[in-house]
Write a structure and sequence with these properties.
The protein has 429 residues and is α/β, with parallel strands linked by helices. It folds into 2 domains: 114 residues, Roll (Urease, subunit C, domain 1), CATH 2.30.40; 291 residues, TIM Barrel, CATH 3.20.20. Strands 1, 2, 3, 4, 5, 16, 17 and 18 form an 8-stranded mixed beta sheet that branches. It has a 6-stranded mixed beta sheet with strand order 6-7-8-9-10-11, sandwiched between helices. It has a two-stranded parallel sheet with strand order 12-15. Strand 2 and strand 3 form a beta hairpin. Helix 4 runs parallel beside helix 6. The radius of gyration is 24 Å and the shape is globular.
C-alpha cells in the first residue's frame, strides 16, 4: 500500500515537473531566456544603413531583436541559448500587402459601389492552411483585404501569419482602406467606365474627409460634437495618417488618377498595390509624390495585340514591371501576390521573376522589396521589416538569396518564437 502511494506520488510529481517545463517560454520568446543565432550572413535590410553582416550573431530577447553584429565582436550573454546555424542566412520575415487568404473567404459586398465601413477582421482565421504554407516560405506578415468587386471594398487588417489567436496576430486594425480602380470594379452592375469610378471615389473621399475635419474641430474645442457615422469613421484614421489607402490599380490612366486624386487632391497617404499594364509610365510622378509601388501579381507587360487594345500599353519587349518603375526613377518598389491569385507561399517568386526581367538586385533591392519597403509603405516599420534592435523578432533562416528559387527555408521565428522548423515536422513547402 505504501509502495503504491509512493509510486503515485512520484508519478504525480513527474507529471507536474513535465507540465511546468512544457509551460516554460521558449528561448527568445516573451518571458523566456535570450536566444543567440549564429549564421554565416545576416541580411539586415535596413532602409538606410548596414545591409549585410557576415559571420553574424543575432541576439533575441522577449520577442524582440536585441543586437545584430559580427559574432567575433560580441560575447553571448550568460544564460542565452545558442543555436549555431552554420552556413545558413538570417533575414527579416517577408511582408505581403495584398492578400485575400487571411480568413474564411474573399469578402466582396456588392450592394454599394463604395463600402468603406466593411471590416474583414470579422472573417479572420489565424493559423489557417494558407498561412501555414506562407510561413514555410518566409512570409510572416500580410495585409488581409477585401476583394475588388467595387471601387472601395472596405477595411483590411495587418496580421502576423504565425499566430494562434487574433489578438496575437493583429499588427494594426485598420490596416488600410481598400480601393479598386479597373481590372474588376468596372463589371459592377451594368458595367461602368473609368469616369464613373473616379466620380464615386471622389465623392467618398470628399464626404469622409469633411466628417474627419468636423471631429478634429470638435476635439480642438472649436465646434459641436458630430453625429457618429460608422460608414465614415475610418476617415478619421486616414486624415490623422494612422493608416493608408491601398489601391488595386492597373492601366496607366487609373494609376495616374490614383496618384493625382487620392494623394494630390485629397492629401491621403496611398500606395499602388497592382500598378500593372503600363503603370510604370507614371513611376516618376509616383516617386515625386511619395506613392510607393507594391507590384504584382503580374510581373511583365507583353507586346501582344490584345493587351495593347485593352490597356493601351505598347511595350516593345517583354517589359519587367519593377524594372520599368526603377528605370523611371521609382525607389520604393515592393512585391505582392494578390493571394490566392498567386499562392501566398510564392511571394518570393514575385521578386525572382522581376529580377529575371531586368530589376537590379545588386544592392539587395529585391530583399528590401519584400521587407522594409512594404513595412514603411504600411507604416509598420517600427515593428517589422528589418533586423534592427527593438523590432519584433520575425526572423527567417534560409539557405541563400531569398530571390533565388533554389533557396529553402530552414527555420522561422515570429515574435522570437519558433513557428516553423522542418527538422521537427514535415516540410510544408
Amino acid at each position: 500500500m505504501i509502495r503504491s502511494f509512493v509510486i503515485g506520488l512520484m508519478t504525480a510529481f513527474g507529471a507536474a515537473v513535465a507540465s511546468a517545463q512544457a509551460e516554460q517560454p521558449a528561448p527568445g520568446s516573451v518571458g523566456g531566456p535570450g536566444l543567440a543565432l549564429l549564421c554565416s550572413k545576416a541580411l539586415v535590410a535596413a532602409f538606410n544603413g548596414e545591409q549585410v553582416v557576415d559571420n553574424a550573431i543575432v541576439l533575441v530577447r522577449d520577442g524582440k531583436i536585441e543586437k545584430v553584429a559580427p559574432a567575433a565582436e560580441v560575447a553571448v550573454p550568460v544564460g542565452y541559448a545558442v543555436r549555431d546555424l552554420g552556413p545558413l542566412w538570417c533575414m527579416p520575415g517577408m511582408i505581403d500587402l495584398h492578400s485575400h487568404v487571411g480568413g474564411a473567404m474573399d469578402i466582396n459586398e456588392m450592394v454599394y459601389v463604395t463600402n468603406p465601413e466593411l471590416k474583414v477582421r470579422a472573417s479572420v482565421i489565424p493559423d489557417n492552411t494558407e498561412f501555414k504554407r506562407a510561413i514555410a516560405a518566409s512570409v510572416t506578415s500580410v495585409l488581409y483585404i477585401p476583394g475588388s468587386g467595387t471601387n472601395s471594398g472596405g477595411q483590411g487588417v495587418l496580421l502576423k501569419t504565425g499566430a494562434k489567436t487574433y489578438e496575437e496576430a493583429v499588427i494594426r486594425d485598420p490596416g488600410s482602406l481598400k480601393v479598386a480602380q479597373w481590372g474588376n470594379p468596372e463589371r459592377y452592375l451594368f458595367g461602368v467606365g473609368k469616369t464613373w469610378e473616379n466620380w464615386h471615389l471622389r465623392h467618398m473621399f470628399t464626404q469622409g474627409l469633411a466628417y474627419a475635419k468636423r471631429w478634429e474641430a470638435f476635439e480642438r474645442g472649436e465646434g459641436p460634437q458630430p453625429k457618429r457615422d460608422l460608414r465614415l469613421e475610418l476617415f478619421r484614421d486616414l486624415s490623422a495618417k494612422r493608416t493608408q489607402v491601398s489601391t488595386h490599380t492597373q492601366v496607366a490612366q487609373v494609376v495616374m488618377m490614383t496618384i493625382l486624386m487620392i494623394k494630390g487632391e485629397f492629401g491621403i497617404d496611398v500606395y499602388i498595390d497592382h500598378g500593372e499594364f503600363g503603370g510604370y509610365l507614371y513611376a516618376g510622378v509616383a516617386q515625386q509624390m511619395g506613392v510607393n509601388a507594391i507590384l504584382g501579381p503580374r510581373n511583365v507587360d507583353v507586346p501582344s495585340r490584345g493587351m495593347i487594345d485593352w490597356v493601351s500599353s505598347n511595350p516593345e519587349k517583354i517589359q519587367g514591371l519593377a524594372a520599368g518603375y526603377a528605370e523611371r526613377g521609382h525607389k520604393m518598389i515592393g512585391f505582392n501576390t494578390d493571394a490566392p491569385v498567386i499562392p501566398q507561399e510564392e511571394l518570393f517568386l514575385q521578386s525572382a521573376v522581376n529580377v529575371k526581367y531586368g530589376f537590379d538586385n545588386s544592392d539587395m533591392a529585391a530583399v528590401r522589396g519584400h521587407t522594409i519597403v512594404p513595412a514603411i509603405t504600411a507604416g509598420i516599420q517600427n515593428r517589422v521589416g528589418s533586423l534592427e534592435p527593438g523590432k519584433d523578432a520575425d526572423i527567417v533562416v534560409i539557405s541563400g538569396d531569398p530571390s533565388d528559387p533554389r533557396s529553402h527555408v530552414e527555420l522561422v521565428l515570429v515574435n522570437g518564437k519558433v513557428v516553423y522548423d522542418p527538422r521537427v515536422e514535415p516540410r510544408r513547402f
